[in-house]
Amino acid sequence: MAKGNAAPARTRGGAKPTPAPEFVQLLTPEGERVDHPTYSVDFTDAEYRDLYRDLVIVRRLDAEATALQRQGELGLWASLLGQEAAQVGSGRALQPQDMVFPTYREHGVLYCRGIDPIMPLGLFRGVDQGAWDPNEFKFNMYTIVIGAQTLHATGYAMGVAKDGKVGGPDGEAVIAYFGDGATSQGDVNEAFVWSSVFNAPIVFFCQNNQYAISEPLERQTRVPLFQRAAGFGFPGVRVDGNDVLAVYAVTRDALDNARQGQGPTLIEAYTYRMGAHTTSDDPTRYRIASEVEAWQAKDPIKRVRAFLEKQKLADDAFFDQVDEEARAQCIHLRERVLSMPNPAPLTLFDHVYADGSPLLDAEREQFATYLASFEGSEH
Amino acid sequence: MTENLTLGKALNAGLRRALECDDKVLIMGEDVGKLGGVFRITDGLQKDFGEERVIDTPLAESGIIGTAVGLAIRGYRPVCEIQFDGFVYPAYDQIVSQVAKMHYRSRGKVKMPIVIRIPFGGGIGAVEHHSESPEAYFAHTAGLKVVSCASPADAYWMIQQAIASDDPIVFLEPKRRYWEKGEVDTDRPAASFPLHAARVVRPGTDCTVVAYGPMVRTALDAATAVEGERSLEVIDLRSLSPLDLEPVYESVRRTGRLVVVHEAPSNLGLGAEVAARVTERCFYSLEAPVLRVTGFDTPYPAARVEDEYLPDLDRVLDGVDRTFGW
Q1: What is the mean pLDDT of residues A149-160?
Q2: Number of independent structural domains in chain A
Q3: How far is A133 from chain B (nearest CA, A)?
Q4: Are A158 and B145 an interchain contact pair (Cβ–Cβ within 8 Å)?
Q5: Which of A187, A257, B248, B268 is the most exposed place for a label (fewest CB within 10 A)?
Q6: How many helices (H) and strands (E) does chain B have?
Q7: Of the candidates A140, A155, A162, which has its C-beta nearest B68's C-beta?
Q8: Are A191 and A320 within one domain?
Q9: Interface of A with B in 136-195 (CB under 8 A)
Q10: Are the beta carbons of A129 and B105 separated by less than 8 Å?
Q11: CB B136 within 8 A of CB B268
Q12: pLDDT value of position A8
């Protein structure tokens, strides 16, 4: 260590003796309910079963999309495998009036918003680039550039405040999703500054899945991510991201604070990306099998099933029925992906501008003439 | 009503009118509130419209544009001030990857009525990063529109038209012309001259000179200087994206000669695009190649040599002379 460097010792060379982090947990990996002094949930038996159903369906739809990519039907897929609880827990904590700014991996949140899971697949198939109205679904289009959406969310939240829609139980809150890698981006840090000084009604939901493609968390930070919030002047909390109950409780609390006018919160959902970054990635090049196995023991779905079984809240017929429902949704999804038409060539000129451009119109016309010059052309 | 205003005051009056006409219009940027902006373009607006509408932002340009995107999704019409041309680059990603593409990727479902005001160009003796001409970066990006005003009357009307547009517009203000005065008819309906249209600002017969922003004044001065010897037709492009070149084609077909003038470096600049298009459309009318009179392909130099870097009256006339050498 350099002279005068008082920084705490860091681990090197891949050895990670990191102790289990402290976080909010309400359901252990073994399916035991535990209490927390601040956070709690009060679900009915049916609601517990609904959460299980969401988790299973979200995972199965994700697996279906991965399969579709492997079969050449999608160009790419960003799997959420392992992060189901972080997404279902936070997604179910949203009120209908709340607005979501996702990355490109929040398929589970999208599902919990009641949105047809087919919606983002056009982007991954390559037939569009999103193409939905964020205000219609209260769910922004996926954002690929890392962290850029946190500023959009902050601006939107400033607009919510300008519209006078904060300060009561019916207030609107905004949630911005991002990952551990994004916390190094300038935009994310600017979003923290902005939301803090303007007291914007926003929740920053960081899914710390331990990797930014190949780079481990240690490459992004020397302090636990949730602690960064303190430096920006708002609360930060770490939650067991594989515990759907704790994620729900923590997110609901943060959203309520935002809608009541108490400003931003940073949530670090501590989880693990069980699969690859995307289907174009090979995680065996940068992480070891034992690490993955250790996280398999903390699976977000197994613990809910264990809880339901121990508490006798569900029987085999229920679990079978959920599996069947998931299977049916996957078949339905697959059929519709396969029948997605390719866009007509000239549509690539559409919507570049709201008010049009004569130069672009001329370019389109020229290209249309060119296409029409081919024998048998339908254009 | 006609008023004699500086270009800076005309912008201020235009912004004020936009704030009055539409309560979704916001002004945001560094020092735009109490100070009224470092060039005082937003002077008095926060006092009259409040801190909710004229927002002093934290000092981070990506944040200014990124939050404007969110505000636009929410239904607002943000007018963002970037303090100086050389400070726009931290916001470049948000402008190019987000602002420019949101309407396209949403298939028209999300509009981005954002105006990005940038005082641009040199000639004020400033330190580095305060005198640049970044227009080509933005004009090259589909989804953005780029305009530049050159007179107080255009400043007053164009800023209002830009704010009313549902497309994102990079609005380049010729900062060294902020203090030049001109007549502004504040009653003229905004639609009477379109935002994205070039304009012949001085008719002539011998050679066409195309300019925009701060160089329009220079081109006009050059035309006056050779009055009686050569008749120069000066065209103010006004819109850099989309370009409106019909008046240029029409002019070149009469004069047969074209000189394009801008402060930005020549390499891959607006002049190159104008030259290519004019060559394609007016090939048989040209008596000489299209020539460019521009800043050099260097970084913007230190202030004590900027007069050498910037095209001036003599360099414009030298360019005109050279077209007659063919």
Answers
A1: 98
A2: 2
A3: 5
A4: no
A5: B268
A6: 12, 14
A7: A155
A8: yes
A9: 136, 140-141, 143, 145, 148, 150-160, 162-163, 186-187, 190-191, 193-194
A10: yes
A11: yes
A12: 47
Minimal CA separation from B71 to chain A, in Å? 5
Per-residue model confidence (pLDDT) at position B248: 98
pLDDT at residue A377 tops 80: no
**End residue of a domain, out of A338, A355, A370:** A338
Please check the confidence at residue A165 and state whether its pLDDT lies above 50: yes
Q: Provide the pLDDT for residue A21.
A: 81
Q: Are A194 and A256 in contact (CB under 8 A)?
A: no
Residue B178 identity? Y
**Residues with pLDDT less than 70, chain B:** 190-191
A70 touches chain B (CB under 8 A): no
Give residue A378's pLDDT band: very low, low, confident or very high (50, 70, 90). Answer: low
Omega cis (within 30) before A300:
no
> What confidence tens digit (pLDDT) does each residue in A232-271 have?
999 999 999 999 999 999 999 999 999 999 999 999 999 9
Q: Can you say whether the dihedral through the CA atoms of B306, B308, B313, B319 is positive or negative?
A: negative
Q: List the structure tokens of B55.
A: 């927002």
CB contact under 8 Å between A352 and B104, yes or no, is yes
ipTM score assigned to the predicted complex: 0.97
Whether residue A143 lies inside any domain: the answer is yes
Whether the Cβ atoms of residue A81 and residue A62 lie closer than 8 Å to each other: yes
Q: Are B109 and A132 in contact (CB under 8 A)?
A: yes
Parallel, antiparallel, or unpaired: how do β-strands B258-265 and B207-211 relate?
parallel
- Cα nearest neighbour of A126 on chain B: B105
| CA B256 to the chain's CA centroid | 27
- Neighbour-count burial of A36, counting CB atoms closer than 10 A to its CB (0-12 exposed, 13-18 middle, 19+ buried): middle
What pLDDT is stored for residue A376 in this prediction?
A: 79
Same domain, A236 and A353: no
DSSP A27: B
Measure B236 CA to nearest chain A CA, in Å.
Answer: 18
* Interface contact A159-B74, CB threshold 8 A: yes
What span, in angstroms and rounded, lies between the C-alpha atoms of B228 and B205? 12
In a domain, A27, yes or no: no
The partner residue sitting opposite A354, judged by closest CB among B69, B97, B167, is: B167
CA distance B114 to chain A (A): 12
Q: What is the per-residue pLDDT for B24?
A: 98
Sign of the dihedral defined by the CA atoms of residues A275, A276, A277, A278, in that order = negative
Sketch the domain layout of chain B as residue ranges. 2-192, 199-323
pLDDT of residue A379: 56
CATH code of domain B2-192: 3.40.50.970
CATH number of B199-323: 3.40.50.920
